[in-house]
């Protein structure tokens, strides 16, 4: 399925750019292009090589077979990874580390508080950890939006109190180009 997707994606590209080339040369050019694109897509799929190729996502000249088949682009994977990292850090109960996940002018808004600035966000989370020492988050689903660098995160907040309360929450997390959180808006459901 992946190879078929590559063939479809790049046959159109090659055909479009070689309409004036003779038929025999077009076939050879198509095969060479397909081989090169397959190699580049394979290499590009390894994280350690991502920096070698310009662009990613919707405007990238490189389309990974995975993205072609599923619609998931490298930028979307990065958004999901960043969101998961935030929840991992949050679950350590280290308010300062949570604050470091935010841009200097980042903001946090939920049903109880609104704060701006990474240090104040860290402090606000530190207060939560002191007030509810057993609190933990489990992630149910993350829905990335590449165009806005935003993740809509369905989470469960386990208060781990005597009443065994679990809050259903949606966090909307907006990231900047550096992967820092510009804004986090939490909605209780």
TrEMBL record:
The keyword Membrane applies. InterPro entries: NTF2-like_dom_sf, SnoaL-like. The keyword Protease does not apply. Residues 84-182 form the SnoaL-like domain. The chain crosses the membrane at residues 27-46. This is SnoaL-like domain-containing protein. Pfam families: SnoaL_2 (PF12680). Keywords: Membrane, Transmembrane, Transmembrane helix.
């Amino acid at each position: 399925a992946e190879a078929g997707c590559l063939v479809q994606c790049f046959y159109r590209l090659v055909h479009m750019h070689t309409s004036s080339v003779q038929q025999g040369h077009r076939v050879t050019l198509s095969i060479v292009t397909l081989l090169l694109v397959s190699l580049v897509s394979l290499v590009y799929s390894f994280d350690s090589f991502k920096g070698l190729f310009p662009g990613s996502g919707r405007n990238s000249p490189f389309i990974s077979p995975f993205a072609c088949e599923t619609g998931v682009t490298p930028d979307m994977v990065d958004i999901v990874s960043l969101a998961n990292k935030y929840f991992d850090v949050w679950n350590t109960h280290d308010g300062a580390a949570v604050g470091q996940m935010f841009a200097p002018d980042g903001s946090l808004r939920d049903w109880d508080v609104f704060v701006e600035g990474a240090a104040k966000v860290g402090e606000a989370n530190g207060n939560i950890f002191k007030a509810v020492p057993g609190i933990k988050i489990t992630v149910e689903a993350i829905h990335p939006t590449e165009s806005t660098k935003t993740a809509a995160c369905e989470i469960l907040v386990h208060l781990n109190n005597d009443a065994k309360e679990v809050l259903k929450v949606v966090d909307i997390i907006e990231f900047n180009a550096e992967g820092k959180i510009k804004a986090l808006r939490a909605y209780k459901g």
